[in-house]
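Task: fold both queries, return tokens.
Query 1:
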Amino acid sequence: MSESFIPTTYQLQSVATGNLFGDSGWVLDAPGEDVPSLVRAIYAEKQLQVKGEEFGLYRYADWLPVSRMLNGSTAPVTYKSIGLANVLGLSNLYITFSGYWPERGAGMTTCSFKETEAYAVCGRLDPKQGKVLVVASAGNTARAFAKVCSDNNIPLLLCVPKDYISALWFEKPLNNCVKLVVTESGSDYFDAIHLSNQVCRMDGFVAEGGAKNVARRDGMGTTMLSATTHIGRIPDLYFQAIGSGTGAIAAWEANLRFIADGRYGSHKMKLMVSQNAPFTPIYEAWKAGSRQMLPYEDALARQHAEQISAKVLSNRKPPYPIVGGLYDALRDTGGEVLVTDNEEAAMAGKLFEQLEGIDLHPAAAVATASLIRQAEEEGFSHDAVIMLNITGGGEQRFKLEKDLHFLQPELVFSIHDDLDVIEDNIRLLSWK
């Protein structure tokens, strides 16, 4: 199978200026430009040709910036809802599921769509560069990258808040190429990002790049590729819960590629993205009409992050203001930012499991709750073609069926540790 895989041909483009340039290996920013901007992959194949299921996620390789195919991937699965659709009175509700649900053909053993990011990012990474990949995460992203790197012998350093490491469970022990360091108890995702940034100032380490990495966004965009090719057209409405909003940006970019493809419609689907109250910085900025994020005091942000059920949605520094980021995506699609509390999300998750047959991650329950509330609003089109992006599910079932192994931290850092302390301790680790 791998012998028939051909590296994808593409260029990179600055969203701010339109300038085109080659990918020299790990480009995250447009060279020589002052205005902060995302860069996009411009693929040689304008029309997507989907490969066979045996290619896993790489069945969408025409629109993935990858040079190799890694072992163990599966793609998101899209199906037309019956149970939830009937209760909500929706005639064209399609569910794109990323997680563990064997009967649906969904085989992501980390139970999260973060696997789509990890297989794309690591498929872009050149093994000859000889550096340790550094990833900051609130849980699901770390689990996905750990699995992919362990299975494919890729050196990885994870930076995660200590209070979130219960999310680092696996179906088998990990390869020693994967190592975990944490920020002290009481810290949050922003603190883990800060630690990762400090590590990446050291020789021998390379930042995964977050939303700036075209492979991360286009990997996440495979949810949209799955939905659109299954439905046969671009959806009208897109529902997803967001922490950074990177998945919504990815869906928007995939939408633009489908318009250029010419076979799936010429319209832009409306992004309907949700935050988990009381952690709602994107909602506050959007409702204020502000491209810039509003001030959010550190202690209050940590308090709000602790209160929400969907901890993975607690990103304080999302790619919202940057050119080509979430603000632009929402403006271009006429999108909306919605809010759901823990109680609504829990009720929605139970309803989904009852009607569709699988348990949801808290973030996916937030998205489902927002869809339920919108379907009850006056004037909502019940005939619209709707894509509900279920970004994680099947975890409860997976844990019942498997014996779990947990990744333990090598080091614990204070949020006040300076670069010298961090460097001295990180140098004690070895990937050889």
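Query 1 returned. Query 2:
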Amino acid sequence: MALDVLKIRSDFPALSKTVHGRPLVFLDSAASAQKPRQVLDAMRFGYENEYANVHRGMYELSETATSNYERARSKVRKFINAASDKEIIFTKGATDALNTVAYTWGAANLKAGDEIILSVAEHHSNIVPWQILRERSGFKIRVAPVRDDGSFDFEAFKSLLNEKTKLVGVAHMSNVLGTVFPIKDIVRAAHGAGAVVVVDGCQGATHLPADMQEIGCDFYAFSGHKLYGPTGIGVLYGRSELLENMPPFEGGGDMIKSVSFEQSVWAEPPARFEAGTPPIMQAIGLGHAIDYVQAIGMENIAAHERNLCVKLAEGIASVPGTRQIGTAEGKTGLVSFVMDCAHPQDIAMILDQQGVAVRTGHHCAQPLHERFGISVSARASLGVYNTEEDIEALVAALYKVRKFFG
């Protein structure tokens, strides 16, 4: 189904802005997406009319807030087709979710002599926590490569699996390459070796349908702010059998059954992993963001963005002296690139003068940039609200970069 993108754009107040006298062309949704009015209005209404701390409050406001908060958990569960609401943990972001896996499951299960496998394309959030834990536990990190086109080298990955492999960490979709990794095959192979699989779904859950029971992974993390929701909220999906046997990450209120100075007894998941006052309105806002994208349809969003990504890649390739990082078949959502005439930071500054917003840097994926022989890149990334006219504006601005730097 073709999307009514003009109608969708009207839902996003930020897209009516002008920048340096030009209409804003927002191509940085991979870092953080704009928010629709439906989410903003729902959160404002909640703060003004239905706000109180959740759980245990025996009065109407608290009961309403608790109901809205737990309803948001159910929306997330349905969105990713988890088996139970108990498998949905609210965190303050995807980084927090991945750290939770490292310092709960990882700290309890990884030891000297073990190995874990991470793809070279991982975001730092799925690298650094494991490095910190490695210093304590002494396990080995092995790196699964990508091919020159940015596709996942599945055969090389399988050759790394052995009886020492305890965990595999992989992105659903690369935030630099746009590559959609074959996570169902990765999960199947990893489970065959007896390893647990943690998936960074920050880009995947935004651009693609993500079905936990179909994928079969053990943990899956994503953030609200990339899914047209608020900042300060993330989701960790974990299989019930694992969560029930994991220690808590943080201690405090609401994550216990009982406390004495002799011993504390942990609550059942998900409360065990949600210490203290949770991000109440952020979770509710995420629930409304999920309502928004589901009303459009994730399959429809995926098709729209795949088509746009092809045009985006073609448009950038038409500019002399550009080199794209990642050209794998089926990629979506974004294109990272460099130009032979200008540093990415200079590219972004000139684009900004034309009203075009892109991101530059290593995109929290330095090992991947080193794999492709560069230190930084420019990245244009798409959302449900982007159009072919946005791509045309980007390409015209890139020609101005070419002209300016010669």
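Both queries returned. Flag for query 2: The chain has a mean pLDDT of 97.
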